[in-house]
Amino acid sequence: MARGTPTALLLLVLLIHSFGRHHLIDASSTTIINHGVIRQPLSSTIVSAFREAPAFRNADECPHGDRVHVAMTLDANYLRGTMASVLSILQHTSCPENVSFHFLAARSEPYILSAIRSTFPYLDFHVYQFDSSLVRDRISRSVRLALDQPLNYARIYLADTLPLGVSRIIYLDSDVIVVDDIRALWEVDLAGRVVAAPEYCHANFTKYFTDAFWTHPALSRTFLGRRPCYFNTGVMVIDVQRWRAGGYTRMLEFWMMVQKQRIRIYQLGSLPPFLLVLAGNIKAVDHRWNQHGLGGDNLEGRCRNLHPGPISLLHWSGKGKPWLRLDSKKPCSVDHLWAPYDLYKSSSSSLEE
Ligand SMILES: *[C@@H]1O[C@H](CO)[C@@H](O)[C@H](O)[C@H]1NC(C)=O
Ligand SMILES: *[C@@H]1O[C@H](CO)[C@@H](O)[C@H](O)[C@H]1NC(C)=O
């Protein structure tokens, strides 16, 4: 992605002005102006790459004084996924005007912001710069390169990042499609817990950690007194105040430090620290809210079918992403459920000439 032209800086400044309060992307970042060569920005291609979504209006019965806050990461590589997720949320909620989006981005890429603004002209959104240096030294290599991107760890820092007024947040990965009213997930009773998410107690929990972990006398006691179950961190409802008060970010960082500096205790990316701190202590949500694994396994991304039962959220976790498989003309059958939310217009524009 091109960055660092005077035009980019100007655009960024304009964006910050027009977006108001919480747009914390650092406009003074010198990396933006010290880029000697003026390169042709990719802005025009990215900004015009997506169709404009329709304006979604509230139904009559929308409550006053209750906004739904959704957090996602924002990255050029997953932008198509993010756009589709946002569209799916707006399309299926009865109160689309009362949903606010909080995007965490690793770099200030004004083109991405204007792409969102032009695709969703009515969207209430805020962008925060996630400081990758917070985690860079804490990340250890996992089984899949994509899991090692600093932005993948941004969810650990949500509570430090969001404005104080946001006391609850729904965190979503960029490869989800919501096919139900997000408000139903928002209103889940956390019953004093910090995180709510679908829980999978039949999954083999042992395999998320190494033998070195389970045979270590002190480490293996971590789960003593709780019944840990796997949960997927791509869909979480978080009580931000409780998270802050309980110092959960520091607890997760502790385990990342153990992994990095002491002993290799897991193979995946940002998931295991969440399991170490929270598994067995979360509020279980109906499985309909995370039909996960549709991207296939972590190594090859083989096709997978839907699990039986009602579905409110589809999640292409795993290696394969629906937009890539559709583009390669080798989609899995579940990818056709993603396609209706695709706002990317390359395929249609190639037909125009
Ligand atoms: C929700 O949207 C309605 C418009 O339908 C608006 O009047 C109300 O103030 C909004 N509530 C909040 C908390 O944003
Ligand atoms: C769970 O996984 C571990 C480690 O891969 C394995 O040793 C164990 O037999 C599995 N347990 C079950 C019940 O499948």
Automatic annotation (TrEMBL):
Belongs to the glycosyltransferase 8 family. GO terms for molecular function: glycosyltransferase activity. Keywords: Glycoprotein, Glycosyltransferase, Membrane, Signal, Signal-anchor, Transferase, Transmembrane, Transmembrane helix. Its EC number is 2.4.1.-. It comes from Vanilla planifolia. It is an enzyme of class 2 (transferase). GO terms for cellular component: Golgi apparatus. It is a single-pass type II membrane protein. Residues 1-20 form the signal peptide. This is Hexosyltransferase. Pfam families: Glyco_transf_8 (PF01501). Its main location: membrane. It is found in: Endomembrane system.
